[in-house]
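We close this part of the discussion by returning to an individual protein. Part of our work consisted of pairing the sequence of a single chain with a tokenised description of its backbone. No coordinates are needed to read the tokens, only the vocabulary itself. The amino acid sequence and the backbone structure tokens for this protein are reproduced below:
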Amino acid sequence: MSLENNNDDRAKIPNLIRIGAIQSDMNMEIDTDVLDPVVFNNTFCRFVLNNKGFLHSFSKIVLGVNDTASNKAFPAGVGIHSLIERCALKIGTKTIAEIDDFAHWMQYKSLFIDTDINNERETFLTNRVMSHEFNYETGSTTATNSDVNASNYYLKGQRYPNITPEQIYNGYGGGNVEIATVNELKNTPLYSISLSDLFPFLRFNQLPLYMIDQQVSIELHFTPDAQQRVMSRTGPAGGNTINEPEIRFIADYIFYDGEIMNQYREANPTMTWNYVDYRLNKRTISASQLGANADAASKIIMDIGGAGRICSKIVAGLYNDNLIGTGGSAGDKKPDISLLNIYSAKSPLTVSGNNQLFTTNLRYNDHYLYPLDRENFAIHFNDVIQGEGNVPHITRQEYSAEGTGGLSGAVADGGITYNNQVVSATDIGLNGGFFNQVYRLNRNERINSRGLELEVQYSSNAASGMKDASHTHRAWLEILRSATLTDGKFDVDFA
């Protein structure tokens, strides 16, 4: 039966591009292609998809690196995503979705992965190692240990050279939790990046490739600095290169039985997607602008763009892209000795037991987002929860460097380090390393020609190990976009 003039029959056709349950009487088949990049070098690669079926949003890109040095893995907070500097989804000549500084973006998105999922899945799929383990040791003997009160916690690992797992659980002396053998880069492990992580546009939609007459491609720009790709025990020990023979795109194409796909094409000569994409604004903030205390700090007003766009959210953070690490010098940068490498949004430090402040507000369309400037760390954290509708799986110390005794100390103090680095260290550990802010714009209104003005004031950020005092402030704008597929041709614009 023709559907051209039968609206009732059209209504019976399910929405095949939406991820979710389908009718129980529909049959579905999966066809999988393993695609090699059509263009590849150590800084860039491009995949071209086959125009067939519906592209499953959880298709994956498999990749890894070649590295011969021992005790090296990918940064704890981002894992394999540290290899990607920029990603783009293109249809014809149009860029449908893109994210700049993708690894930094995934540092933020990784906060919302449950610690058990990190331990049981992400450690092996993406090499994100952010699962926590509690340490019930309080003294040098079992008599001073506790069965119910943990003295500290640390990153979980699968190999303990100095102590056994049983000793950890039973409260015996400290030691070093090392990178699991399976995750060491010298063993050439391979990990995967989900298509829906690269392009949030596809998180809820499956591309009808068979309806598109243009070339569909995925472009990856690799992180150019090899030191910013990995985590090492001792710092630079030889470079690394992208493992070219192993990089591939595992594309899953969905097909439905019968005439349903032809009927769907006939019923939808024009299709429109409204979705969010991300635009990055970044700028350098000098040491003098950060200040040593509340009086010395400057209020920084940044024009972060967004003029003429509908912006629903901003995610921001202050990153030390020039991390040197303990004992380094200006010409001896060692970002890879940090557990998080450069993918760490820094909080103001605690100075002499006093928490320093971070004050912020957002001005747009001639009004401020908050009636009063935000400066309380608990409120900053709550803004993250409200903006994402989810709770970050990190501790107070990891977010804002507040509190004592939770993060693992040095082995000499009865604590446990990870990959020979002290987890509580402010320059190389987790302390105050996840201080992102989220600004939620709920009015769904277009930003005027003045754009978005972000105001920030850091009262102190002078960590002893940060010899390079300038930082990079990053702000990702969540922008509403619209894409239209008409007679096999894609067009895209801002909403």
Observations:
- The two ends are 37 Å apart (CA to CA).
- Residues 397 and 404 are 8 Å apart (CA to CA).
- The longest strand covers residues 270-285.
- The domain at 1-13+28-129+182-268 is CATH 2.70.9.10 (Adenovirus Type 2 Hexon; domain 4).
